[in-house]
Write a structure and sequence with these properties.
11 strands, four-stranded antiparallel sheet
Length: 591
């Protein structure tokens, strides 16, 4: 097997592992580096080049800058004020939420912006009696669209620019994307505002299980405590006179009984998993002899009896230490005094056997604890709370200073005073030195999965170029689309990037396709910039799945979305943005 064939196999295996997520991204990335060096495809120095690439370093520095703005409360301050304009219908509410999201997403990492806007959106949804699912996906889409407006608006733009410069090509200026990005945002934003109220589902938040007025049916758990008069009585007496209550499972000791019959005799310390409307659950919990509910306290289940506890939804963040861990191993009760009541994944509530669940980014935990405990949990950065704790832990006095540091980086980069990688590093250091961000929070903001992905896939792109695989793939694309002219070629490349992004990630698609795009430019003699722009914008066009962009995964749990919701609402947007890109890219960057 020659090097090109080996690279084709390695590329296919990498794509499969990134799409299926059978193996953690960090493991895939490190394995890539090792395989490229051990097989001799690249020298050790070249295999490790992803760690020193200016693209990787710039992304890391920008993550720290974004975290500094977030920690200082700059986003909270403006978003909260603009959200006050949200009365007067769903579309006005959407505009009020999308405007601050777009403004901040144009200059900082999208993920913390959306994380901060989620609780704002849910609070407004409750105030104006609108389902959160009508608001949260538009917030994510607004963030994605606005990220295309500047060089630093998304890590994808930074990556394409850095890889182009590493390859000896001219990069992009700070606002070179803006002329197309603003129109891109207007077109996409108009679709979201006009189509969102009609096509998005109406779903309840997980925490609304405690509201008697909540619609729909929920799964919860009740207990028969010691001394209960219901002990020794048939199951039918427990649900007698209540609205329709379905008993899914009865657990006695370690023995579960699935769907017990109505004559099943109850015993002390029985635990029942029931499905019913919120109103019926409240009535059931109000009966004599029924415990107020149980929760996961580390490795055991405990009866909840305190009345000074608050309920909150906690979303597992993309770079959380909880990702891949079992609930019973987190130590939430021991460390924070917080119990887990339920989990929601892919729009479905789960209460049964949740101790052994391995969490994923985007999962929503329904947690119970004192206000101070919930705030301490949020402080750790592994989750963000969207219900129960109304304000983030921030330091507003530092907001002007943090904003000034970010503004200085943007202005100096736009004036060409120094390369963006140098300015971003200086800005990140300034955030720490001025105490807008402490070293611990700066380290946590680095998102290891993103940086390791870059460190592993950047040398993969280099190896594709060295072995001739990138040139062969470029030739295939040129052979298919080239005869129809450069505009069709650019359009086809945008479409290819957009499709890959839906199943990989924006960064992975950009890193894999940039060397191919540069190869096409070299082969055909056209200006590489139209192809690079097609990659940058196509890699950000992730609307039809929750996989391709972190913000889409982030709102999935709080909004109760299902995979099909993204396809139904996002696929038309993908097609609309493809048509827009086909028109706009040649207009601004003639091939």
């Amino acid at each position: 097997m020659n090097d090109a064939d080996l690279m084709l196999v390695l590329l296919a295996v990498t794509l499969v592992l990134l799409v299926t997520q059978w193996v953690r991204i960090e493991v895939v990335a490190l394995s890539l580096v090792a395989v490229l060096a051990l097989t001799g495809v690249l020298s050790t120095e070249d295999a490790l080049s992803g760690f020193s690439s200016q693209a990787t370093i710039t992304v890391a520095a920008m993550l720290v800058l974004s975290a500094g703005l977030e920690r200082a409360g700059a986003v909270d301050l403006v978003a909260g004020r603009l959200a006050a304009l949200g009365g007067g219908g769903e579309r006005r509410l959407l505009l009020a939420l999308m405007l601050p999201t777009a403004v901040f997403s144009a200059f900082m990492n999208n993920t913390p912006v959306v994380a901060l806007m989620v609780p704002v959106a849910i609070t407004l949804a409750r105030r104006f009696e609108v389902s959160p699912s009508k608001l949260l996906l538009p917030v994510s889409y607004a963030s994605i669209l606005a990220g295309t407006c500047t060089l630093i608006g998304t890590s994808t733009n930074i990556l394409v620019d850095g890889l182009a410069r590493d390859g000896g090509f001219e990069g992009f200026s700070m606002f070179e994307f803006s002329k197309m990005g603003v129109l891109y945002l207007v077109v996409g934003g108009a679709y979201v505002v006009l189509a969102g109220p009609r096509f998005l589902p109406r779903r309840s938040a997980l925490s609304e299980v405690i509201s008697p007025a909540a619609e729909g049916r929920f799964v919860t758990e009740i207990a028969i405590p010691r001394g209960s008069p219901l002990a020794g009585r048939p199951l039918a007496e427990l649900v007698e006179g209540a609205e329709v209550v379905k008993v899914l499972e009865l657990v006695r000791g370690d023995d579960p009984t699935v769907r017990p019959f109505s004559g099943f005799v109850l015993a002390e310390e029985d635990v029942l998993i029931v499905e019913a409307s919120a109103r019926a659950i409240h009535a059931l919990l109000g009966r004599q002899g029924v415990a107020a509910g149980t929760a996961v306290a580390d490795a055991e289940r405990v009866v909840v009896s305190r009345t000074d506890l608050r309920l909150a939804e906690a979303v597992v963040t993309p770079n959380s230490r909880f990702d891949g861990e079992r609930i019973q191993d987190l130590g939430l009760s021991r460390v924070h005094g917080v119990q887990v009541l339920a989990v929601r994944r892919l729009g479905r509530h789960h209460r049964s056997a949740i101790r052994a669940w391995r969490l994923r980014s985007g999962d929503v935990l329904l947690v119970l604890g004192q206000l101070a405990s919930l705030e301490a949990l949020q402080e750790q950065g592994d989750v963000f709370l969207v219900q129960g704790v109304e304000e983030s832990v921030t330091f507003p006095r530092k907001a002007p200073l943090a904003a000034a540091i970010m503004l200085a980086v943007v202005l100096l980069a736009s004036l060409g005073v120094a390369p963006i990688v140098h300015l971003a590093l200086i800005g990140a250091a300034a955030m720490i030195l001025t105490r807008c961000l402490d070293v611990h929070d700066a380290t946590r903001s680095l998102e290891p999965s993103v940086l390791m992905l870059l460190a592993g896939t950047i040398p993969l792109g280099l190896a594709m170029e060295r072995t001739g695989l990138a040139a062969d793939m470029a030739a295939s694309v040129v052979d298919l689309a080239g005869p129809h002219g450069p505009i069709v070629l650019v359009s086809a490349f945008y479409l290819l990037t957009s499709l890959l992004t839906e199943f990989l990630s924006n960064n992975a698609a950009a890193v894999l396709l940039t060397p191919i795009g540069l190869g096409i430019a070299t082969r055909t003699g056209i200006d590489p910039k139209p192809l690079l722009v097609a990659i940058a914008f196509g890699a950000s066009a992730s609307f039809a799945t929750p996989i391709g962009y972190q913000t889409n995964a982030l709102v999935m749990g709080p909004g109760g979305y299902r995979f099909s919701d993204y396809v139904r609402f996002g696929l038309p947007l993908n097609l609309l943005m493809w048509i827009s890109a086909t028109i706009l890219i040649p207009a601004f960057w003639p091939p």
